[in-house]
Amino acid sequence: MRRTVMAVTIAMVLLVTRTGLAKKDPRKGDLGSELRRAPISVQWLRNPYAGQDPAIRAGKKLYLRHCAGCHGADGRGKEKAPNLSSPTIQSVTPGMLFWFLKNGNLSEGMPAWSRLPDQQLWQIVTFLQTLCPELPNQNASQPIQE
Ligand code: HEC
Questions:
Q1: 146: which residues sit within 8 A by CB, 6+ positions away?
Q2: To pair with 61 at 20 to 30 A between CA atoms, which of 69, 88, 128, 139?
Q3: In ligand 1, which atom is closest to the CA atom of 32?
Q4: Ligand 1: distance of its center to the CA of 141 in Å?
Q5: What are the 10-residue block averages of pLDDT along the chain, 146 residues in total?
Q6: What pTM was estimated for this model as a whole?
Q7: Do residues 145 and 81 touch, judged by C-beta distance below 8 A?
Q8: In CATH, what number is assigned to the domain containing residue 94?
Q9: Which residue segment(s) compose the domain that 76 sits in?
């Protein structure tokens, strides 16, 4: 009897959590929610170029070519896509950004960039992490221009 009660309780708890999750579809503007879905295995990947100037420069070029059309030349977002200099985006690990760029979030309008080589993705990540001037220990953010 105890066992049945236990099993039923567990089943109910599972049901409630599952339906809860199913309802929480990632809304537009729910910034960072996709990034936080990155698997643990990639979250702590090391960025081989962290803080390196040549990578920041290369990343900036790639950003202007591939991303600025939607996220704005200064990375602060446009009507099409969110602000990438926001503290929410700036507080995630490089591995989470890398993973998100590779996978995108097509249903919400963010393309996947898996066709770019890993090296270029890391360069973009390196550049993205210079975008928040308020955070300490970041490379000084310069105005973005061609
Ligand atoms: C076609 C327009 C478009 C292009 C091009 C684009 N993005 Fe996005 N991006 C979006 C949209 C729309 C979202 C919001 C998606 C969402 O709600 O998850 C987004 C979200 C993001 C996010 C935040 C994810 C989150 O969890 O909120 C990051 C980081 C990002 N883009 C980086 C980039 C980078 C870097 C590039 C260039 C390699 C790029 N994007 C190119 C449209 C675009």
A1: 64
A2: 88
A3: 26
A4: 20
A5: 67 52 44 88 95 97 97 91 90 95 96 98 96 56 52
A6: 0.78
A7: no
A8: 1.10.760.10
A9: 29-128
